[in-house]
Design a protein that fits this description.
heterodimer, A: 417 residues, alpha/beta, 8-stranded mixed beta sheet, 6-stranded mixed beta sheet, 10 helices, B: 91 residues, mainly beta, Folate-binding fold, 4-stranded antiparallel beta sheet, two-stranded antiparallel ribbon
Chain lengths: 417, 91
């Protein structure tokens, strides 16, 4: 049984110099067999394990992770959470996640620092204005809070934006989702890991999957660097490496893996208390609780697994940031990094069964998976436990690429996710 | 971030080029005769290899010609550059 985190436990542990905190999760060796194994110990994978144990009573399960938990894209994203997507299927999916975010810290007894500071999306040309207004209406029909802001309202909401009409891409307005915001990405992984571990889930780090053993059309287990693990159900949540795992099972996915970059500045006093995104000039920025500006750049155009991107992408993003926020002109950037994102042709995820019995994929989140972490885990757990999708992820099946029933969010959502 | 040796212009920064994705995916000669699975395979399914992948690249900000590249996607090292219409090299 885990000790409950509270103000009292904080005070109590302060008296022993914080040296006697209980371990948040165990470090077990893999058993010979599990009822289900999740491949990938990021936020989505750990959330999947958590909900499998909590809602579906599957506790004889494991999460295998080739590095350390939360060390992939979970620790590399810009932590933006929103649900203002255009299409009904996407709105249902992302708002399901947002609703879970709203109670997540209490549910996990772990402060994920969810901050509903609002996300604003800017329009820079007439087509942007039309698209964003259309999306606002679509959002409201789906019960998602979204409002259109005129240029002066944008300025009022975020005073440091340059709303001069003389700049290359002037701000012609924007949309605002007030329930949207940010969360602490590491805490999400750690909170789900702690919760899953408490219910008996084995979280096995430094355990890389080397092969998938099949018996005809069903799975039998996984070859890993810690030996063979027998299981009848494998849920793959490997983000940028999804195709690599799929190839092991003889499957091909409609994915391309590309580097996506982000960067943070030196920490400064509070200057921007919301998240501002711009699709047209491709720049988005927020400020972390430590005071750093968190800036997201775009993806490179080519397939790469290197976890680093090109300088010209960073340069383009910073140019856009400086035009929109002249006040940042003398800020110094502290760190820059890349993550590998798996992008679907329609920029929507896959949460689905496959043609191989017992093999499930949760992938294709592209550049915007973090926001969906709790919902993705919940729906993927449902899909694995019941061998059927939940109605909220039914549209995100892998067969849509055959039937043509795509969920085309490319360009239709607020920004390149 | 790497250099590409364009077979027509010589070595230039990658930012001058546009990636055209996986190479050697031939457009079906009779698309109307394909079933949905075959069409999806042609249109959407990709190998997305971690390792040496054969790709098409276009020198968009240069000669604007297409060519093929064999590149290791795990470290961005280019193994071989060859022209359109040529068979992929054995590496």
């Amino acid at each position: 049984m885990k000790n409950k985190y509270s103000i009292f436990s904080l005070i109590k542990n302060a008296f022993s110099n914080h040296e006697n905190w209980q371990r948040a999760w165990r470090d077990p060796e893999p058993k010979k067999e599990y009822d289900a194994v999740i491949v990938g110990g990021g936020g989505h994978g750990l959330a999947t394990a958590y909900y499998l144990a909590k809602k579906h009573n599957l506790t004889n399960i494991a999460v295998v992770e080739k590095g350390w938990i939360g060390g992939g894209n979970t620790g590399r994203n810009t932590t933006i959470i929103r649900s203002n997507y255009l299409w009904d299927a996407s709105a249902g999916l992302y708002d399901h996640a947002l609703k879970i975010w709203e109670g997540l810290s209490q549910e996990l007894n772990y402060n994920v620092m969810f901050s509903q500071r609002g996300v604003m999306n800017l329009a820079h040309n007439l087509q942007d204005v039309r698209d964003l207004k259309r999306r606002t209406h679509a959002n409201r029909l789906n019960g998602i809070d979204a409002v259109w802001l005129e240029t002066d309202e944008v300025k009022k909401f975020c005073p440091i934006i340059n709303t001069s009409q003389d700049i290359r891409y002037p701000v012609l307005g924007g949309t605002l989702q007030r329930r949207a915001g940010t969360a602490r990405h590491d805490a999400v992984a750690w909170g789900y890991a702690r919760g899953a571990d408490e219910m008996g889930v084995d979280i096995i780090q430094n355990c890389e999957v080397k092969g998938i053993k099949r018996n005809g059309d069903s799975v039998e287990g996984l070859e890993t660097t810690k030996g063979f693990i027998k299981t009848k159900k494998i849920g793959v949540v490997a983000a940028g490496h999804s195709s690599v795992i799929a190839n092991m099972a003889g499957l091909k996915l409609p994915l391309e893996s590309k580097p996506l970059q982000a960067l943070v500045s030196e920490p400064v006093k509070p200057i921007i208390d919301t998240v501002v995104m711009s699709n047209a000039v491709h720049a988005y920025v927020s400020q972390s609780d430590k005071g750093e500006l968190v800036i997201g750049a775009g993806t490179d155009s080519y397939v790469s697994y290197t976890q680093k991107g090109s300088f010209n992408i960073v340069e383009e993003t910073l140019k856009a940031i400086l035009e929109l926020y002249p006040i940042f002109s003398r800020m110094k950037m502290l760190r820059q990094w890349g993550g590998i994102v798996d992008i679907c042709p329609d920029a929507s995820p896959i949460i689905s069964k496959t043609s191989i019995k017992g093999l499930y994929f949760n992938c294709g989140w592209g550049t915007g998976g973090f926001k969906a972490t709790p919902g993705s885990g919940d729906l993927f757990a449902h899909t694995i436990a019941n061998d059927e999708p939940h109605k909220l992820n039914a549209a995100f099946n892998i067969n849509r690429f055959v039937s043509g029933d795509l969920v085309d969010e490319h360009g239709a959502a607020a920004v390149a996710h | 971030m790497f250099l590409i040796n364009c077979p027509y212009c010589g070595e230039r920064d990658q930012s001058e080029f546009v990636s055209g994705g996986e190479a050697h995916i031939a457009r079906p000669k009779q698309p109307t005769e394909l079933n949905d699975d075959q069409w999806a395979e042609y249109l959407f399914m990709r190998k997305n290899i971690k390792g040496i992948q054969f790709e098409r690249w276009n020198h968009a900000h240069g000669c604007r010609k297409w060519f093929n590249v064999a590149r290791d996607t795990s470290n961005d090292k280019i193994e071989k550059i060859y022209k359109m219409g040529e068979q992929p090299p054995k590496l």
